[in-house]
Amino acid sequence: MRKLILLIVAGLAVGALFGHLMMSVPGYWLIRVGDTSVQTSFWFGLVLLLAAFLVVHFALRLLSGMIRPVGRFRTWNSRARNRRAMKRTVRGLVAMTEGRWKRAEKTLVKAADDSSTPLVNYLSAALAAHYQGHYTQSQEHINQAQLTTEGADTAIGLMQAQLLIDRQQPEEALAILNRLDKQLSNHPQVLKLLKQVFLSVNDWEGLRRLIPRLAAQQLISQQEREELEFKAYRELIIFEAQNPSDIERVRSLWADMPDYLRGKTELIVLYTEALLQANEDTIAERLLNHSLDHHWDARLVKRYGLLNVDPARQLAKAEKWLQERPNDPELLLACGRLSLRTGKWTKAQEYFEASQRQRPSGVVCAELARLYASLGEHNKSQLYYRHSVEMLAKSLPSLPQPSDASDSQPGSKKAAKRA
To answer: What residues contact 335, with CB distance under 8 A and at least 6 apart?
Structure first.
């Protein structure tokens, strides 16, 4: 109601303004053609001119519509088809979400030609075909997506790589991802898929070089980074150590390794074994000395006791550690073995027996048995050999034995007695 009143007031105001202008600004139009002339007032002529303009304008529009009816129909038809395609696309995506892959694929492909986003249709159809196990058809949809949309190489490549990974074809996926990585440096999704592929194909060198880039993009947590780095360096050292003549490669890995990993016992042991295989015993001894001074571990102590670099110096170092850890069974075993290397039989016997008192072990019993046999004390040697076998037997799994099987046979003597 208020709007109507405002319109009426505005109309009256405009009318009054024009009335005032018509009264205050007199004038006339004179049109003469040959002997004929037409004269009218200025304002009436102005109204006639405006009316003529409107008539001509609408006449031209009507004429244009009559001249191009096919084009207008095509435009209307295209818009209608696009609307239907969008509805079908939505239905197809809903079917995808519900896991109805066959219906989704059929609906999305049918709507693709009229859709304003054919890339979405064909890539979604490719995914639906993939989930049905129709891999050839899935690739055809991807190829069609590439033809319909320019500038979508990244999206299509990522989709191809993901589908190939799901199909257990990591090598083919890796080729696509490497190409994308060269084109788009540090693309987050490319880096994530590269990590997944490197792990699946055991490409530890590739993973080692990828980890800093993943961390820089904040795509992995600190904990995951440390786990991946540990695994990558461990596997690389194991692989490179298979060729003792190329110890420089292992040394390079150790030098490139983050500082916190050099304190990991498992990696220290692996590096030590690689050095020993390459006859780098002196370097291995220095490594174990340094590691044990900063990080005590029974596995490193055991390996130190098996070294044969300078037994006298090693024994002196081990005995220095023993002052701080007098009851360490592994260190006592190592001191006993180093004593054997230096020819100190009595001291070796004492260290072995002290280790056995701290923690009974089949290995220590075997060392004592061998030592007593060499000293001619065969009774003690046999006693410790028996203890060694008994302790080893206790660590074996419980499995059926021939005596157990014979007891259960109907014709056996024991079975007869039970009867």
So the answer is: 305, 315, 318, 319, 322, 347, 351
